Amino acid sequence: MNKPVAEESGSAQSLMGIPTAVDLLPYLMNRLTSKINRMWLLELRPHGLTIPRWQVLSILKVMDGCRIGELAEMAGSEQAVLSRVVDQMQRDGLIERRPAAEDSRATEVWITPSGDSLYQQLLPQAARHVDRLVRAFDDGEASQMAQSLEKMLDDIAGQ
C-alpha cells in the first residue's frame, strides 16, 4: 500500500486531512501523562503527597540545594505555583529553604531528613509504577522512548 504523498513529504496531515499518528502526538502524550499522574496520585495521597510534591522530592534527591526557578523548570511548572508547593512542604517539614552560600539574597531548597525518609519509603512503589508503565515494551524500546522524549525536551528547551 502506498503512503499518502503528504506523509512522505513530512507534512503533518495526510492528503485526506485525516490526522496522522504524529499529528496526535501532543494529544496522546497529554492523555498518557494525565493517566500516569492519576494512577500515581492514588499511591501518593495516603502519604500526604501530590504529584508536584513528589516531583519536588524527586528533583531534590538529584539536585539538592537548587533554587525555586530551577525546581519549577525541572517540574514543568510555573514558579509561582511551585513556590506555593514549596511553602506547604516546608510547613510540613519535608524541605527547607536556606540562603545560598554564594549569594545571601538567593534562596536554595533542600530536602530534610523527614522528606528523604518519605522519598525512600515511596521509592519501591515508584519503581513498580514505572514498571507497570513500560511493561508492554522490551528494554530497548523503553530506552529508545526515553531517549526520544529527552530529545524532544532538548529541542524545545527555551521556547
TrEMBL record:
One Gene Ontology MF term: DNA-binding transcription factor activity
All residue ranges annotated as the HTH marR-type domain in the record: 22-154
InterPro entries: HTH_MarR-typ, MarR/SlyA-like, WH-like_DNA-bd_sf, WH_DNA-bd_sf
PROSITE patterns, alphabetized: HTH_MARR_2
BP-aspect Gene Ontology terms: response to stress
Signal peptide: none
Protein name: HTH marR-type domain-containing protein
Organism from which the protein derives: Oceanicoccus sagamiensis
